[in-house]
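From the shared-data thread, chain only:
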Amino acid sequence: MRLREPSGRLLGYITHGTKCRHRKIFRGGWVRRVSTRPEVGNKENLEKLLKEYGTRPTTPLSINQMYESAVYQNEGRSIQAQYMNRSATLLHAAKYVHEELPVRCAHLIQDLLAMPFGLSNNSAIQEVMKLFHNTILEITDPSQPPKNSKQEAVIRDKAKMILRNHRTIVVHMRSALASDLLSNEEKLQLQPFLDRFYAMRIGNRTILAQYVTLAQEQRKGWVGLINNNCHLGKLVDKAYSIASEVCAFHHQIKAPSLVLHGNPDVSLRYMESHLEYVLTEVFHNSIYSTSKRRKSTRQHQNHDNLSNTVSLDEDLPPIKVVISEAKKSITIAVSDQGGGFPKKHLESIWTHLHFPNQNIHESAVRLQKRRSFGDNDEDISPLINGYSCVSPRLSQNGLPVCRLYCRHFGGDLSIQVMENYGCDVYITLLKDGNTPEALPKPLDVDMHMPIF
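Structure, as tokens:
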């Protein structure tokens, strides 16, 4: 059987055998070995589901839509009225998840099927497609949306299960993409696919975790994961504390002092766990780079006295944060003196294919109590790696995913680098909360179903 890329380029041939455990795909002299692990469910069933849901457009929500459709107006109401209001809110959210999640999962399967270089036949990618396929089957059984609280509770339990099951997706993707057979050029070609994949996955976890969290006791000023008064100065302090703890625990280094300028009292309605994650990642980079640079400098200066190579935190140049509010946006600027890096490497920092330290679990568990959303169950985190407080070298996602989180509701993340001095990171957030989720549009490619 011939195997082609979505562009039509011939990758090679597949030979079937009853006992064959692998397929060899020949491309430009390379021999790629791909496991023929189990099918992604029934082929005909998958084709039917993709035809039904894959052609539908997604229905992205804005922060204001999520907040205002679920806010409980309980002041002055009886206990019975409060219960009815809460039940109606959960039922509305369940109907949305029931209708929307299959569409998003179908789009994700289509994206994975369209991956170049024969990656859609990789066993790990097949496992991810199988998870999305099973999600569609689970959430659409029964096919009719919930009509009462009992049926809503069933959908909510399924949403929790999906969040837990999908935690392995990042591991599967890492396994599929960690191959040395991919050249640097091929890895760059994968970036649009991975940006699309993780952007949609952020959206999936956001709507599921928001729905599940609505059923919990609401904190004052919060609706699910959304804080109506997200105080940026306090969040900066919290994220810096978390990043400092990660560096002390995982790297045995002390953090420099934090200097906060601008308007630290500014606040906005926002999904706080997203911003906490981004800030923690950025601060970790700055702390690590600043400490590493000073340590390297002092090692050079004191090569005969290794006991002086570790700097104390007061010896390090401070990390500066400026919070600036404009009419339509808020910018958080983080500046460090960590030495920067050559500008020719600027594009490479946005790749999803860096695989540093693999031992993340111990540090992640240690920091679970610092999360900014209600439930203590790490499995239902809205974040794509399943953790809320892990640094870039721990989460394996780093700045590329941080940028996707910022862009999810219309913001952005950018970097200015001064080689041999440091970096400035700019996080931009939109204030009005009316920008819908930045979900990718369906790919306009010929569909290639998985080969069984």
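DSSP finds twelve helices and twelve strands in the chain.
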